[in-house]
Every structure is written in structure tokens, then in C-alpha cells.
Amino acid sequence: MNVTVFAAREQDRPQAAALAKRLNAELTVNEVDALQAPLALRIGEEGLSLVGDGMVLRADFVSMLPRLRPGKLQDEMLVRAAKLKGAPSPKAFDATAGFGEDSLLLAAAGFDVTLYENDPVIAALLQDALERAKTHPELASIVKRMHFHEGDSIGALKRMAEADSADEMPDIVYLDPMFPARSKSAAVKKKFQLLHHLERPCNDQEEILEAALSVHPRKVIVKRPIKGPHLADRKPSYSLAGKAVRYDCIVPPPQAD
Fold first, then answer.
1. 227 to 12, 108, 174, 181, 185: CA distances (angstroms)
2. Where are the alpha helices (DSSP H) in the chain?
3. Which residue from 128, 136, 142, 255 puts its CA 20 to 30 A from 69's CA?
4. 12-29: pLDDT as tens digits
């Protein structure tokens, strides 16, 4: 879907023009035009926001701070699923970064996280959140461990596997792909319906799982709706389940020497 880029303030217009050029999007300084557009990226004092259908969505890590507190972070299901033994400097690869909230949890838990997001609009929102977090006293040290790339994670994983460098291989590959059934789920918050205008359902389940396994991680962790099917019909080694979501953990057999 086409997106309009909007900046009302004079000082934001160079950034808006650069973003519109990068996204090959229409640029406007007229708020009425922006509000009438199906989707608009608005640059303002609070950062970059996605606007549409009377809703506003902004990637922001500040709201995650209560979940990062000592005693809270360790109870997060994703952190429990990602726990490894004998990994003093663990590395994670988030192949479906979205707004980066799950990667933030992993980074707060001590992982060095590589994030990939393929959709350019979501990528712009995530990049904006990361830039703002770099100046936040409680987030700056965490986001230093988050290394973001806009692009195709499947291709990146395949290149990593071909290079076969032990220093670059992640201990964990994390997958949270969108599926057609998920886009209609009542469990999805209304505001995240905006993202469904952008993000394409995952039709390459086997390919993304094969790519994840090709880098020989210690675990592949797949986030799923609590009653959702297994990724590519691959039965996990074990699962951690909550009220709304579960984490399917695939533990590949050790590599032969």
C-alpha cells in the first residue's frame, strides 16, 4: 500500500523529504492531505508515527521499561525460552524484527542481537525508535547490543551459512512471522491492524525455517498464537505457553565433528 510522508514543522521537512525519497512515497506538508491518505508517516516532535483509519502507531521502547526491571525480565517467556547454558556472550538473530520489542527483551537479557526487517515502512519506524532510545538513560546501554538491518533475513541467513564463520553464527534464531490466520485474530490489538496493511503474510514457512536452521544455532525459537499451527508443520523440541502466545523451541541435533 502507498504511504504518504508528512511533516508539519519546518525543521522536520528535510528529514521527511529524505524519507519520502527513500520510500518512493508522496511528500506533503498539508495535514489534511495526510489525514485523508490511507496511510501516512508523520514526522514530529515525538518521532515517526504511522497514521491511518483514525489510529496512530509509533515504535517506542520507553513503554517496555517496566518489563526490563530486575525480577520482571527473567519472568518473560521469551527470555526463559532463550536461556542457554555455557554462553557468556550469547548472540541472537531476529529474522522478523517488526518493532523490535522482542529483540529489546533479548538484548536486555544479555544477548547481542542482529535484527532484520524487510518492510521499509516498518523498518523506518523501528530505526526511529532505536535512534530515540540511544539518548534515553535507561535504554542506551541496551540498544547498543541491537544491530539493525533493513532487508531480507532469509538471504542474510543463507549468506551467513555459506560463509560458515563460527564467530558470526548466532546461538539463537528468533522467528515471529505473520500468517494469514493471525491477521484476522481477535487477539491482535486494534492499532496493530495498521501493520497488516504493510506486512505480507508469511508464505515461505519452509524457507525461513530452513534458513534459520542452516546457521546451526543452538535453538530456533518461534513465537506463535497459543492455538496456532507449528511453523512449517515442524514439531518443536518443547514449548513454553502463556495465555495468548507460545514459544516453540526447536533444538537441532549437535553438529558432527
1. 44, 28, 19, 11, 11
2. 13-23, 31-36, 65-68, 77-82, 101-108, 120-133, 140-143, 153-163, 193-196, 205-214
3. 128
4. 999 999 999 999 999 999
Cell triple for 254: 549437535
8 Å CB contact between 34 and 28: yes
Q: What is the spatial order of strands in the sheet that 146-150 belongs to? A: 146-150, 112-117, 91-94, 172-175, 219-225, 245-250, 238-241
**Can you tell me the distance from the alpha carbon of 252 to that of 255, in angstroms, rounded to the nearest whole number?**
8
Q: What is the pTM of this model?
A: 0.92
Write down the residue that cell numbers 505473520 correspond to. 178
144-197 residue pLDDT tens: 999 999 999 999 999 999 998 888 899 999 999 875 544 444 445 655 677 777
Q: At what angle do helices 120-133 and 13-23 cross, to 10 degrees?
A: 140
Q: Which cell numbers in the block locate residue 239? A: 514449548
CB contact at 8 A, 194 and 50: yes
